[in-house]
Amino acid sequence: MAQIRATKDPGIAVDFSHSDVEQIKDAAEPVPVIQEKVVKAAVIVPAAGPTMTEAASSIAEAIALRKEELVRTDGGHGVEVVFDVQALTLGDWDIIAVRPLPSTVPSVSMVETFSLVSSSPPTAAEAGEVLFVFAVAEDRRIVFNEVAADGGFTGWQEVPGGLLTRTAPAAATLGDEAVVFATSPEGRILVNRVAPDRSFSGWQEIPGELTVDAAPSATRQGEGLLLFARAPDARILFNQLASDGSFSGWQERSVRFA
User: Fold this and answer.
1) Cα(33)–Cα(9) distance, rounded to whole angstroms?
2) Do 70 and 21 contact (CB within 8 A), yes or no?
3) How far are the Cα atoms of 22, 173, 191, 238, 242 from residue 227, in angstroms, in the given order?
């Protein structure tokens, strides 16, 4: 019987036994055979199961196109077909890997893939038609989740770059990009931009000598963004981000908080 699991890649994998592969190989019409196996596996899977049940036909068609690869990859213990977790929201069931079983990629909790425990509040901003939610994981990694127009989530993934932080991120929409700000372990404020194609620009330090010990805040103003930060001496500073990506520099507000 086929099984579905979340993998550490991250990915969503459908595992087929050697017997499953043989049945798929011998089937004149493999799509119905694969679809039945996917449905039986999906109905008992938390979080992703309902979506994969509805998408079983598309999943089966994608796997059937790789039938010969499945047969070649099977070393007698079955194969694993891996999809990007974003397929659960985007509906693009493109296979990213076909590998033999037993797999060397560890499993992770399916529920944990789509849930998160965080000690700080999340923030969100839109990039094109997709809402990006940013949060800090328990191990201080900055992670994100995508929310599609139909309300579906893709699952939590780490923001590329490996930045660790002790404070909550801040985010706002600038044009058709999501802009996220976070602090480094040294207290520097960094910026990352997400394009409509879901690509990240990478973490870049904001110019200036400012270091902080609290989370920044960002909001839209006109064609740009305003970024606020609290200096260690309790001064409130702001910086303006223009649509071309340039910063105005840190300026002090007239208010000081204890």
Assistant:
1) 27
2) yes
3) 59, 12, 10, 5, 11
Q: How far apart are CA 166 and CA 152, in angstroms?
A: 29
Domain ranges of the chain: 3-110, 116-256
For the segment 198-219, what is each residue's pLDDT rounded down to a tens digit? 999 999 999 988 999 899 999 9
Q: Tell me the C-alpha distance between 45 and 53, whole Å.
A: 10
The whole-model pTM stands at 0.61
pLDDT means over runs of 10, the chain (258 residues) = 88 95 97 96 79 91 97 97 83 92 88 69 91 89 82 80 93 96 95 94 93 92 92 90 92 60
pLDDT in tens, 74-121: 999 999 999 988 787 667 899 999 999 999 999 877 766 666 667 788
Largest CA distance in the chain: 76
Q: What is the CATH number of domain 116-256?
A: 2.120.10.70
Given CA atoms 147, 152, 156, 159 in this order, what sign does their dihedral have? negative
DSSP symbols for 74-132: --SS-EEEEE-TTHHHH----EEEEEESSPSSPEE-HHHHT----SS--EEEEETTEEE
Q: Quote the distance between the C-alpha of residue 116 and its chain's center.
A: 12
Coil/strand/helix, residue 73: helix
State CA 147 to chain mean position distance: 10
